[in-house]
Specification:
Radius of gyration: 24 Å
Order of helices and strands: HHHHEHEHEHEEHEHEHEHEEHEEE
Strand order of the largest sheet: 7-6-8-9-10-12-13
Number of strands: 13
Strand content: 15-25%
């Protein structure tokens, strides 16, 4: 097995120079750096990551804590994080907080104990304990998907963590106005778990869409699906049981879409003949359903990529102001809304 001394002899430089190239601890002339890298490739040298971390105080690893990794949306975020991390020479440690505040804190604590350089987290609906942990240990952090109020309560302090998510309000309003343009006056919403910023914003978008279409808001047409398939089944059952049920339905994430469809099929409700359906979150097989699902497609992989970029910039410049980045969604027009079966269109919502 090749050693650092072997690399130094092959490149005609000192062991210290090889160390500086590997650890970026001192500027090295481009031709010298190239000679060292060529020697590393030729000899198949593998750096000692533990020794490097002792020199640089970094492990070149990132912790990712997102719940429901089996969910295609979060899987794509993970893929974006992993690809971008590897591109920049970082490894990835993954934990599932299960959307539980206590488990979330323990999961991130464990990642921190593994000496990751920073973490990317999709926070729970009650992230107070997590925020306290991150602030106490000064862990470089980027929140994804769900925004949190990261300033201490009751103070005018600025935001202290970077965040990246998709747009929620305008894309949801776009789904509602589309259904209204098709003649629907009673449009129901299966909303997500209370406490998530995504739930608050998509509910706001739902109400804005109704207002833009000149339709009144009726709280009976909004039911919480708790961001889960089982919750969406119950919520859809409740909405269909109303004396005047909705003629159109919007589901606020892909998991709840599955639950809603399960209830509709079980009750013999035909989409879109009996009830039009639009959903927030597109997924790979949405175009394979009959009818094909009209949806808002979120830039999930791009969210993961952007989160890594923000985290690496935070590592390089810990004192810079925190930023929140929002990425636009795409309206994917198919047939579950009751429109003709033509090749679907994608429209970017900014």
């Amino acid at each position: 097995m090749a050693t650092m001394a072997d690399v130094a002899r092959s490149a005609g430089v000192s062991v210290a120079t090889v160390s500086h190239v590997l650890n970026d601890t001192r500027p090295v002339r481009p031709d010298t750096r190239r000679a060292v890298l060529d020697a590393i490739d030729e000899l198949g040298y593998t750096p000692n990551t533990l020794a490097r971390s002792l020199v640089t105080a970094r492990t070149r690893s990132i912790g990712l804590a997102v719940s429901a990794i089996s969910n295609p949306y979060f899987t794509e975020i993970l893929q974006g994080v992993e690809a971008s991390a590897l591109e920049h020479g970082y490894g990835l440690l993954v934990a599932d907080p299960h959307d539980d505040p206590v488990h979330e804190r323990k999961a991130v604590q464990l990642l921190h104990e593994r000496r990751v350089d920073g973490v990317i987290v999709a926070p729970s609906a009650d992230p107070g304990g997590l925020l306290a942990l991150l602030a106490r240990h000064g862990v470089p952090t980027v929140f994804v998907d769900r925004l949190v109020d990261t300033a201490p309560a009751g103070t005018p302090a600025p935001q202290t963590f970077d965040q990246v998510c998709g747009e929620n309000v305008d894309p949801m309003a776009r789904l509602v106005t589309h259904l209204a343009e098709l003649g629907h006056h009673r449009i129901g919403l299966v909303a997500g778990r209370p406490g998530f910023s995504t739930t608050t914003e998509r509910t706001s978008g739902y109400r804005q869409g109704l207002a833009a279409a000149g339709l009144p808001y009726d709280e009976r047409l909004l039911a919480s699906g708790d961001s889960a398939a089982e919750g969406a089944e119950r919520a859809t059952t409740d909405l269909l049981s109303l004396a005047a049920p909705p003629t159109a339905l919007v589901t606020a994430n892909n998991t709840m879409t599955i639950g809603a469809l399960r209830t509709l099929r079980g009750r013999g409700v035909s989409v879109p003949d009996d009830l039009a359906l639009c959903c927030f979150d597109d997924f790979a097989w949405a175009d394979l359903f009959a009818p094909r699902l009209t949806a808002v497609s979120q830039p999930s992989r791009e969210i993961g990529t952007e989160a890594v970029r923000l985290l690496l910039e935070r590592l390089e410049d810990p004192g810079r102001p925190a930023r929140t980045v929002r990425l636009p969604g795409v309206f994917v027009h198919r047939t579950s809304c009751g429109c003709p079966d033509t090749p679907y269109r994608k429209e970017t919502d900014s």
